[in-house]
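User: I'll paste a sequence; please echo it back and then give the predicted structure.

Assistant: Echoing your sequence first, then the prediction.
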Amino acid sequence: MVVGVTVMSVDVTPRPEHPGTPPKRARRLAVLGDSTAVGLGDPLPRRAGWRGVGPLVAAALGVEERGYFNPSFAGARMRCVLTEQVPAAVAHRPDVALVVAGMNDTLRPDFDAARIAADLTEVIRRLRETGTTVLPVRFHDHSKVFRLPSSLKRALSARVAELNAAIDDVVVREGVPCLDLDRLPGAYDLASWSVDRLHPSELGHRMLAEGFTGLLAEAGFAVPAPVSLACSGGVEPSTTGHVGWLVLKGVPWLWRRGREFLPYAAAIMWNSFRAR
């Protein structure tokens, strides 16, 4: 049971594009993106892998197992989604595609918001050619969740703001729904995050799924089994598991990304000093 988390129920009453028409039924769902799309942070019992936002959305929409497709992988950047995941997703011909990517780009030395925007535009257009409704995300300020020195915090916040501005431009231009993670109720509560503060907890994944299905209902899709925010079916990670992940995965990852991100953070510090 989670205590002290502020959440808001999402109205999943379908709103067809043309009043009087029945809601659309999504029979095929694709989830593209990075480790959050994979489901990290929401482990299944008996080491059966990860669940996460994808299966939760599929269950809410009534998508059967054969209709669910998830080619996402940890570390994926927006270019990876375009070149490695979209071709397989197009072959699946989904009715709905969720795209959760971009945060990994913010931590790399070759970050280029314009290129990310171009890649996201192509992702949306290629999927839409098959009649797919595409839902990307714009990101929260991760520096509010992940504890960082002030200089790194400013640098990361600036990168995320630049990424979101690029995503906003694409969303407006292409006219697609977009889930704003910054505006999800409870998005910055620690209970919404796993121990690494990089991936959503089970509750966080449920919040993402509720947000996505709310947008799909507004787009006229039927949501026969609305997402519950009551955690169940997953596994609460143990303290041993937390420590093991941090030692084997978390710290090495932070070391690699920190070295790549440090030159940009140093530039932010220098510019701030010069502006005084």
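Confidence is low (pLDDT under 50) at residues 1-10, 264-276. The domain at 29-274 is CATH 3.40.50.1110 (Rossmann fold).
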